[in-house]
Amino acid sequence: MADPVARRNETAPLEASNKDLQTIKAERTMIGAELLMETAAERGVEVCFANPGTTEMPMVEALDGAPKIRPILGLFEGVCTGAADGYGRMAEKPAMALLHLGPGLANGLCNLHNARRAHTPMLVVVGEHATWHRPYDPPLAMDIEALAGTLNGWRRTTSRAQNLGVDVSDALAAARRGQVATLIVPFDLQTKPVVAKPAPEAPSPSKTVDEQAIANAARLLKRGKKAVIILGGRSLSREGQMKAACIKAACGCDLIAETFPARMERGVGMPHIDRVPYVPAVAQNLLDSYEAVVLAGAPAPVTFFGYKDTPPSLLSAAQEVVALGEGPDALAELGRLAEALGTPSAPPKELLTRAGEIPTPTGALTRDKVCALLAAMQPEGAVVMDEGNTTSQSYHYFATLAKPFTLLTLTGGAIGQGAPCATGAAVACPSRKVIDFQADGSALYTVQALWTQAKEKLDVVTLICSNQSYDILKFEASQLGTRQLGPTVKRLTDLSGVDWVKLAEGLGVPSVAVATAEELSSELSQALAEKGPRLIEMELC
Amino acid sequence: MADPVARRNETAPLEASNKDLQTIKAERTMIGAELLMETAAERGVEVCFANPGTTEMPMVEALDGAPKIRPILGLFEGVCTGAADGYGRMAEKPAMALLHLGPGLANGLCNLHNARRAHTPMLVVVGEHATWHRPYDPPLAMDIEALAGTLNGWRRTTSRAQNLGVDVSDALAAARRGQVATLIVPFDLQTKPVVAKPAPEAPSPSKTVDEQAIANAARLLKRGKKAVIILGGRSLSREGQMKAACIKAACGCDLIAETFPARMERGVGMPHIDRVPYVPAVAQNLLDSYEAVVLAGAPAPVTFFGYKDTPPSLLSAAQEVVALGEGPDALAELGRLAEALGTPSAPPKELLTRAGEIPTPTGALTRDKVCALLAAMQPEGAVVMDEGNTTSQSYHYFATLAKPFTLLTLTGGAIGQGAPCATGAAVACPSRKVIDFQADGSALYTVQALWTQAKEKLDVVTLICSNQSYDILKFEASQLGTRQLGPTVKRLTDLSGVDWVKLAEGLGVPSVAVATAEELSSELSQALAEKGPRLIEMELC
């Protein structure tokens, strides 16, 4: 009879990789997983955000032999990948996210998407079924390569155990170019004996500074047309913004930041730089006032969604546009542009924001009061993760008066990034206060991050904007022309019934709810004075 | 200068689709989204588990005009897809899961993977950016087709608004064949005017009963060799198990169920059918005792992971194997096999399990005590979702003595299925008590499901197996040959610090913790007597 059923052949020997792991270790022979972890440690990986499973177990065990890498557990993969994103943005080097098979990668994919849009350096390691097991399509089998492919970054499935050193070295070199690098490692290759030799350092990729684009940009800015430089990526570092301010001083152009920067230094003493507005008609009006546009580390601005009356591109065919690169060389390119323009070496003081008083709000909490209070109270050197969505709009106005700090934003629009990203930022910067300015609906996507903050005693204050609603959807519905919300829209945007104090305490984070500006001021003051995670539910009216 | 930057052409008119939605509706012209929802309602869709965003807003609004479809919000997409899976298993027809762009699909992918392995009928509708917006690569853009492709099911991106009726009709026909059907709908096609004509009913696919395989299986079973039928899918319905018991009566073969059935009727009065053991050596020993194997709706059994000493396939080349189909026709095929064997029309009573006493446990809670208590106390007609992992092992032994009930299990190994699946089962079966027997680590993946249970007042009792550990990983490490857990394994399997009572109450579900069998008995008794969601944290020693 026909027999389409896969069965084992009794005579085929199992592979050498099935040799007892303890025996291999007793012989002090290195196995593939150890080569991978030792190479990663040698290449500077210091943290592994992990939610591993059986197919990653040899790599987990190998972490015992790589004590330079700190393993940190996340109770959901989106926490691990978001934390690796936050870490990468702040440390400016890759963390490892260690994930279990296709499902683990799928659960972590949204925050990898955000990291991809942020050009965050990150190494993702995914265990795959053993090469001799995968063809049997076991229950957890999934197309891992296809999932990794959606990230448009470096990816490879290891084909030989001995390659694991080179593979992880190549992955880290690719990650350092500002991308998510995904290395897929079959289980049996992790356990195979290998020769413990160091991988050759992956060659540093050549700089991609585009001299022609820089010359074009310099010519454009010198021509005296009304011009704006849209800054993004590494151009929004302190150094980048100072260089941009020097260019402004020399050419009289305006400066503006991309709408959702991965990382932007802000506060008193920094150049005054607004962001491209989120609301498309407002953004288009603003940008249409320029005859010339230079993109410095930012993509060409487009609307977030497709709206009637506003075309997707916020730049028009009538404008002259020069695009410098978006990658990790954006800062170098901005520097070359400043040189080409012969700008001063430091910006004039009048281009930098000066200290000013933020009025102290009182009474029932509104969005604007929260924004003002936070900007007024946040300490120097704070890292503020903004996933406040509809609530945090005016924060960016007040934040110019805040003490110098670092702003992180939601780069890829996939909500649920704030708490994980704040978690990773706190791991990268243990001496800085991290504040997660956090919309409630978004926070619920990856609420498990609070547990990691508690477990690792991370210095994160989470400010929950508790409006119990997907307000952004109501806003978007109005943008789309809906004048009155129907019952289904109301029903599907109603998040009422969440008690954030209980929820966060259930995950180990001390919490409190506040309803007035006075209460928020008192509780935030206390949370900022102490070390360790805290959550404040801000009941907005 | 060269200009690689995409910009709008001021002279190109915006599409007709940008006509004001209110105007279109005022004219009482139907739009694409309305055609989609009305067709779905006509074709029997009664529930939409949704976490939509801007690109799905016209479809959300169209639900107002399709009152037969009940919209239910999930606060994370994995809740929506898992709920649609639970609904599909119990209702035996597709629910709709409505998701936002690539990130929404990515977040829901793991429970779609589980649904795919369960052959659950399900319709997934994903909004995509407008066709004229997508080429600009806005922040949320992701390769949705690639994500859907990992599910190996029906998928289509709608190309014309007028096709939306036919597209959703085709998707539903495909879903009813036991798969996840994914329809991707660009935003602009949702808002375009269409003619409101009913889609032709998609032709019923022809039955795929394989008469040759049935004849082969009949011949094999009649030959008197030691034989087993491995039952899976629809063969584990009440009718399927009864037919299988008739075959057993006629041929003397044994019966066994696949390890992780999507849905299996169980309890007193059902044939006694064990499951293929999870532990590979035990499974192999058992299956090796048979000379002949018939697969009835089940895939050929393979080990869950690749282990030393146990090859992937649990069937050997020495065995004769006949595979009937795995799809929705499994029940029909089993019936044809019974006919071919001329079996009695009802199984003899001695093949059916009889009522018996389950000893009442006392004292500190252990795994086995929990399993015994649940089996003893669960009411007739209960739906029990088992994602108890290491805790629920012996439940399947005691469950043969339980009152007749329906068992659902984790089919694809992607944890975080229990609470969402129980949620969907409760929507499908409002008059039955749903019990989610739930490992704590797995529950944390999709804990947001509790909120939906509270919001929709669903009759679900969640029993949290609180061992504060990924015990399954410790077990798997031992299977892989690790004799002593290293510090990193210990650290990455330690979930301590979760207070389930606070966590669940934070999401609106009344909760209590118990530490002894007496307490569990008392609290479970009360939870079973009342309607509505409850959670009991079982502190295991």
Explain what this protein looks like in three dimensions.
Chain A is an alpha/beta fold. Chain A folds into three domains: 16-194, 3-Layer(aba) Sandwich (Rossmann fold); 211-351, TPP-binding domain (Rossmann fold, 3-Layer(aba) Sandwich), CATH 3.40.50; 367-539, Thiamin diphosphate (ThDP)-binding fold, Pyr/PP domains (Rossmann fold), CATH 3.40.50. Helices cover 37% and strands 17% of the residues of chain A. Chain A has 21 helices and 20 strands. Chain A has a seven-stranded mixed sheet, with helices on both faces. In chain A, strands 3-2-4-5-7-6 form a six-stranded parallel sheet, sandwiched between helices. A five-stranded parallel sheet of chain A has the order 12-10-9-13-14. In chain A, helix 3 (57-62) links the parallel strand 2 and strand 3 (70-73). In chain A, helix 13 packs parallel to helix 21 (517-529). The radius of gyration of chain A is 25 Å and the shape is globular. Residues 10-19 of chain A have low confidence and may be disordered. Chains A and B meet through helix 3, helix 5, helix 6, strand 14 and helix 17 of A and helix 3, helix 5, helix 6, strand 14 and helix 17 of B.
Mean pLDDT of chain A: 93
Q: Biggest interface in this structure?
A: A-B, 126 and 124 residues
Distance between the termini of chain A: 73 Å
Helix-strand category of chain A: alpha/beta
Instruction: List low-pLDDT spans of chain A.
Output: 10-19
Report on the biggest sheet of chain A: 7 strands, mixed
Q: Could you give the order of strands across the largest sheet of chain A?
A: 11-16-15-17-18-20-19
Kindly state the number of beta strands of chain A: 20
Q: What gross morphology of chain A would you assign?
A: globular
Give the amount of beta strand of chain A, in percent: 15-25%
- Domain count of chain A: the total is 3
CATH class of the largest domain in chain A: Alpha Beta
CATH homologous superfamily title of the largest domain in chain A: Thiamin diphosphate (ThDP)-binding fold, Pyr/PP domains
What is the third-level CATH name, the topology of the largest domain in chain A?
Rossmann fold
* C-alpha-based Rg of chain A, rounded: 25 Å
User: Approximately how much helix is present in the residues of chain A?
Assistant: 25-40%
What CATH architecture of the largest domain in chain A do you see? Answer: 3-Layer(aba) Sandwich
Number of helices of chain A: 21
Oligomer: homodimer
